Amino acid sequence: MPQPSFTTLIVTYNSGNEILNLLDDLHSYASDENVIVIDNASSDETVDVLQEHFPQVQLIQNSANVGYAKAVNQGFDLCNSEYVLLLNPDIRIDSPRLFTEMEKCLKLSRQIAAVAPLQFKNDGGNQYLNFTWSYMTRHTFRLYVSFLLHDKQGSTDPIPVTFLNAGCLLIRRSAFEHVGRLNEKYFLYGEEPDLFLKFKRYGFDCYLLSHVAVTHYRERSLMTRPVLQRLQIRLQAAWNVIDALINGWVGILLHRLTVKKSPTIAGKQRTSYRKRIPDNLS
Prior knowledge:
By secondary structure, the chain is of the alpha/beta class. It has a single domain (6-281), classed as Spore Coat Polysaccharide Biosynthesis Protein SpsA, Chain A (Alpha-Beta Complex), CATH 3.90.550.10. It has helices at residues 19-29, 46-53, 68-76, 98-106, 138-148, 173-178, 191-201, 227-258, 270-276, and strands at 6-12, 35-40, 58-62, 83-87, 91-93, 112-123, 126-129, 159-161, 168-172, 205-216. Strands 1, 2, 3, 4, 5, 6, 7, 8, 9 and 10 form a ten-stranded mixed beta sheet that branches. Strand 2 (35-40), helix 2 and strand 3 form a beta-alpha-beta unit. Helix 7 (191-201) packs parallel to helix 8. The radius of gyration is 19 Å and the shape is globular.
């Protein structure tokens, strides 16, 4: 099996019931050799099942739950590949074309920072397209509605978006480093909109692929917490997202005002990018 040109990062917390299914998918469709798992002090069998069934996976065991952003940044310190694939442990891979299509999109230009597939949510056996902020534009909302009406017309054209879901996300490592990685002040949630608004601030592009998909069995780890803890986490999550959005858009405004005549690293590549990318990606 040819080795992919990306490293896979997975952050686990009480994910013993999901992680083996995901690693089986990786073994089938890509490779389970270039995988880093950062475990945030799971109290279930996550570490045991990884060591027993996938000893080739590089396992980092944190002595405490340091949060998602800090764990991801930990993993990036160990990566030397051009691209890094972020995966939630409760993702299932539904398409053998997923990884080749995502890589193909990133290779169109160094201007592109990240790419993600559609995400379907599985809730009690019912599967439907998970609504995310990716669909908050005219073209992407039309795509979302077409799925609801079961009349989606297939297209292989990547769709430019501001936000993507980080549950399955292929990132250009140099772009990730350029914008300052994930913001570790957000323990959980908030780091996602913060990252994509930083990409936007520095002139990078992100794309959604509508012809490949994954299934997300969302928040399995969260459901292992007591009810009051889950409520506290959700309230903190709402605040984190609001804080990230405010700071992100203010940062974009200030950047445009203060760096108006001094293009960013990504901005300097804009001309050649426009020449090499088809019109429907502009």
